[in-house]
Amino acid sequence: MLLPRLIGHSEPLDLLAVAEHTGRHDLLDIFEGNSLVPEVVGPDRNRDSPATMLETSGSIDHDPVADFQLPSQVFEFAINIEAASRTAARFPTLGRSFIDAHQDLHFWFGHWSILLRVKIRILVNPAAGGGRGRRMLPFFRQQAAAWGGELVVSADAEDVRRHAKQSVDEGVDRLVGVGGDGTFHLIIQELASSHCTLGLVPLGRGNDLACSLGIPRNAKEALDLALQGEDRKIDLGEVDGRYFGVYGGVGFDGEVAGFVNRHRKFLKGPLGYVLGTLSTLATFVPPVIRIVDDEGSFEGRAMFVVISNCPRFGGGMMVAPQAEVNDGYLDVTIVKKVSRLELLRVFPKVYRGAHLDHPAIISHRTRTVEIQLDRRQAMFGDGEEMFDIGPEGKVIRVRPGVLRVVTPGAGP
Question: Are 302 and 334 in contact (CB under 8 A)?
């Protein structure tokens, strides 16, 4: 249970008035084993109906109350899956507001929402941000303790997935990932289609997923949002059971991503993608790519194909400026073969999303896309190598709303 601290409250909350106003006559215990907070009872002291509610919420060790007023000490709002940011901002008016339990528990008192039990875990990639994750471990450890949560530190990529899977298996409600797009890519492999919500603290080179979702760049602000913010469902791209949150790409982009990964110790921030582009350009030979999707087909030599779930990739390149993470579509961007000089001329426009009117660029939305290449090349998702694509092809699909993620101002 996450009740970090108690705060003074000047006005008692008349629960009897709440019950009369809302027509709900069962009161919900909001603090396990604390006699200051009322147990579930009704205005007629009947405990039969509340007993069912207690069983649903998993609460135990309750103390009955002698009246229907919440004492002057009430808990500070900790986390609410649906409306934390909104309600926390109005918390001083709690004494004059109605209480509403989280909709998944099927309890309502007016317009307030309270999450009874939340299990939080913070998963830190210590290598993220050139070791910044490691340097900030004391801060994350302190915050985890303050929220009654747990801190885990990954040893490598495989360990990130192991911790994410373990979090799902152990019933963690909110897993806060601290790292970059690669870290988040590994985490979503386990969190997709689960009950567990992902919070993001971006410390990587590109941070494209976090930026696309409006997550603050400041680590402390991002953590505060991840712990207290609302969540919403977003789409993911899926290929053979593997997911991507930002993009999947083949061709020139894949080779650039490979270059950046091979030199990740020396290439920091978006500059790595610029240097990777210039280095790859000298030797790149465009493959013959065949695309079949909802809009038709394309076949020919192409510089690259990017299947986007987010508007940006590569540390800020707005390759698909119209892409949305919850529209039920993926955005396909095909760049047909052009000269090296022309690619360099167009390249700066990508950072502004001003490249789509170029005659060599095809862009549209789709739910499914099949890709074949005349030679085997690695497909990268979120900057991480996923698998090879060759003449046998791969089918990429959108999976709508399969990931719950904390974002500013999110809704159900």
Answer: yes
H/E stretch holding 158: helix 157-169
Please give the Cα distance from 291 to 197 (Å, whole number).
34
Q: Among 192, 194, 147, which residue's Cα sits nearest to residue 170?
A: 194
Amino acid residing at 134: R
Distance of CA 411 to the CA centre of its chain: 13
- Residue from 183, 211, 170, 176 nearest 317 by CA: 211
Q: How far is CA 10 from CA 28, 57, 346, 372, in A?
A: 21, 28, 62, 67
Q: Which range, of 91-105, 271-285, 293-307, 371-385, averages the lowest pLDDT?
A: 91-105
Residue (of 281, 292, 289) closest to 389 by Cα position: 289
Distances (CA, A) of 110 to 15, 28, 269, 324: 11, 13, 47, 33
Dihedral class, residue 328 (left if φ above 0, else alpha if ψ from -120 to 50, else beta)? left
H/E element, 133 = helix 128-135
SS3 92: helix
Rg (CA), the chain: 25
| pLDDT on residue 24 | 38
pLDDT digits (tens, 9 = 90+) for 309-328: 999 998 899 999 999 999 99
* Gap between the Cα atoms of 81 and 259, Å rounded: 39
Strands 361-366, 330-336: pairing kind: antiparallel
Euclidean distance between the first and final Cα of the chain, in Å?
A: 23
> Under DSSP, is residue 272 helix (H, G, I), strand (E, B) or coil?
helix
Lowest mean pLDDT, pick from 114-128, 151-165, 196-210, 262-276: 262-276
